[in-house]
Structure formats: C-alpha cells, structure tokens
Amino acid sequence: MREGKEKNMAQQRPNVLILFTDMQRADTVRALGNPHIRTPSLDRLVNEGTAFTSCYSPSPVCVPARCCMHYGLYPQKTGLFDNGVMLDDNGASYPAILGRHGYRTHAIGKCHFTPDDRALRGFQSRQSQEEVTSDPEADDYVAWLRDLGYDYYEPHGARGQMYYIPQISSLPAAAHPSQWIGTESVRWIRETASGAQPWCLFSSFIHPHPPFALPKPWHKLYRAADMPLPLLPADSAHVHTWVNRLQNRYKYRDRGLDLNLLRLIKAYYYGAISFVDFQVGRILRALEEIEALDNTLILFTSDHGEHLGDFGCFGKRSMHDASARVPMLARMPSRFQAGRTCSTATSLCDLFPTLLGACGLSPEGLSLDGRDLAELAAKPEPTRTVYSQYAEGDKAIYMVANTAWKYVYSAGDLAEWLFDRRSDPSETRNLAQSADANDAKLELKQHLLRHLEATGRTEAFTRRGASLDWRRCPRIDETYLDDPDAALLTQDYPSYPTNLPGYTDTEPEPAPEVCAASRRQ
User: Fold this and answer.
1) CATH assignment of 2-384, given 3.30.70.790, 3.40.720.10, 3.90.105.20, 3.40.50.300?
2) Do 115 and 108 contact (CB within 8 A), yes or no?
3) Percent of the chain whose pLDDT exceeds 70
4) pTM of the entire structure?
C-alpha cells in the first residue's frame, strides 16, 4: 500500500525531458516559417507548446554554451568563453538539484564535459556519445558499435579537410549516432516509467554538427537544387568579424564560393535535422505509450547555430543570428499555452529556472541568471535583454539583444554593430553609425557594459564620468590571410595514418584492413 501511494505521489510530480541538438539554427523548424525543411515532430512541439523565437546562446560555441545551461549562469560567471576546461563542479547544476529532490537523472549522448568526458556533473548516470572519438574504452556508443561488429572508425563522419563536405555515413540508419540516441532514450523512458521516482532525461544529439554524414536513404531526403541559396548581400564583408575570417580559413571555405556545393551542404544539414526530428517523434510516442506525455516538461533547444554560407561565413562563434540564435520549444499543457510564440529575448540560461518552476522547486539560494520561460510566455517583456560573449580580452566579441534590437562589439576589430531586429531580421544593415539609431545603440551598449561591470569583467571597459566605454585593444593580427595554406583545419581523430599497414614504398600490396577499428567482429 505504501509503495503504491509513493508511486502515485511521484507521478503527480512532472518529469523533465531535455531534447538537445548541436549547432542547429533557429530557422530550421517548418512550423516556424521554413518551407524547405520537414520537421513534423518539432512542428508538433510548436503546435502543442510555446516557441520562443528570440532565444540566444550565452556563448555561441559548444562547451561554454552547455556550461551556461548546465549551471544557469552567464559565461562571465562560469569563466569559460571558448571550448576549454569547465569550472569545477560545484554541486549546483540542474541535475544535481533535481537529484536532491528525489528525481532520477540520466544523460544520453553528448555532454561535452571538460576536462573529463566521463564526468557526471550532477547526473546519476550517463550513456556517453562524444563527438571526437573512435575509442571504445572511452565512449559507450563506440563500444556498442564494436560489440555489434560495426565499423567504429570516425563514426560521426570524416573530419579534417572533409569537415564541410557532405558525405554518406559509413553506418546504416539503425546504427547511426542519432538513431542510437533515439533508441536508448526510448528504452530508458520505458524502463524508468515503471519506477516510483519522477525523472529527468537529457537526450543530446551531435547532429546537425558537421561533418554532415547521413545514413542511407536519408542522404537523399533533400535535393541541392531545391535548397535556397545562402544569404549573400553584396556588402557581406562589412558584418564579418575576425572570427568569421578565421573560421572560413581553417574550415577550407575561404577560397571562393561554390553555390551548388553550398546548396548541397544545406540539403545534408537539413537531412541531419530531419533524422533527429524522426528520433524526437519516436521519443514522443514512447511518452504517449506510458501515458506520461502531458506530465512531462519537454524542452527542445540547441547550443548554437551554423552560418551555412550566410554572409559568406561558416561555423559558429560570431553573433549573427545564424550562429547565436537557437530554437527553444517548450511543451507542458499545464504551463505552456499550445500554439503560442513568444518574441521576448530568452537565453539557454533560462532552462534551469524553467525546469525548477515546472517541478515546484526553488533555486535553493542560487543566484541564477535566467528566468522561468513559463512566466515570460505568460507576460512577455519586450525590453528584456539577454547577453552573449565569445572569447575574452583582446579577442572578445560581446552581444546584447532584446525583442527589437541587437548590439554587438568586437574588441579585436575595434568595431560595433547595431541591427534593427524588426525591420531587418536578416541583419544586413549595420546601424551603429546611424544618427537615427544612436539612442538605441547607446542604451544597449550601456546595458551590456553594466552587465560586464556587475559580473566583474573590468578588463572589458573604462569609466568615463558616469558612463562606461570599451577599453581599446590592439587589432587581431590577420597576416596569416596572406598565405593561403596558413591556419587550415587539422581536426582529425584519430590522427590520420601516414603509413598504412601493408602499403609502403617497399611493400606495395594493400592490406585487406587498414585500421583495427574497421574490422568486423
């Protein structure tokens, strides 16, 4: 009798499901206005929940963005502004808080915890699938591939100079990394539903992060000829920062634009999103089967976006919407109105207080930087500002945005940008030097500088009377651009073999197997 009562009480407490992708732009959901992509499962979340259409990454690169979300703090407090070592786990992550209140917490897929990829950081258990590994001893997904006899050498696709070349996965759909996340999520939900505890599951997909390696037949879901061209205004260079130029170089994408290739890249990128969407549909059906769908807070979002050739740029790290704005979908009938969109500026930092609010928990004295999305949806705040920062010191790029405006400053370029998000949502006109927009620029600039002051980032500014201004830094040295072979990407893992077994100058017979990781067990 007591066990049944405890289970009934637990069932009244909502579950939490965070569906997370890597490098997914905000404009890749059909129900939110993109007619070129098919996302029926994400469309369902839009139609049955609330979409936050001005959600920004607090730092548009993998590790710092995830760190901000995990601890509910802006990067000025986590101290991490690029891929590197996270702050020591302080026991104040969202899974740790939920775990202390009786939740069963689990993560499946990419967490990108550094420096220890196997760390839990508050989760009670994990099934790892990290991006850059072919080591079955270090990764649960790679071990699964090995045990079933699949090729586990570069299971996420060929990197290095192939990073932005669309490719067919060496794995069938049933063994593809995205399918593994979907299958394991469904399995875990079904097994955990029979327990007495409410649960929190973080299901994290590596796609659509490049390399764009799709399984058959998903590689033919979209045709390049049907894809729209990237946004390429005639004066695109005026919105480039130093990091755009650097990324274009080291991703082998700065020696001219092949528009047919760019449309093929988009076709494969969209295909990767649709394959993730297919997994989301499987997970939603599993929740329906166990009658837990409406008692589960579902949040779908991503760590940052991808330029996909817009403005002639590739990758992330900059503050263009293509890079910094992400989807944010919330479904829970008791807290989020169906079919609603909210244009209030939001952040990945808002995820932590949102799930606490849904679970009826307080932040336990934590000074979180975000807000409960349910409160913002119920009472929109057009003037609310959110912040983002990439790098620090002389290389820092800063952003502040609200519903109407976005202001960006790049210390390494000694340049600022102001975009009117209402009249110029594509961000093609920089109004930072426009007299008509001067008041908006000064207001947002001071908001941003005051935020940096409040978080102790005094290296960014100087004080001039009652106001603050940017500290002048030296320009980024870009002499490498004079050499077309300088700073190219060498991001292979494992390192590429220079001597293939059985194929040398003195022994030309090729061996039947090049790498032990490609053997069938």
Assistant:
1) 3.40.720.10
2) no
3) 93
4) 0.94
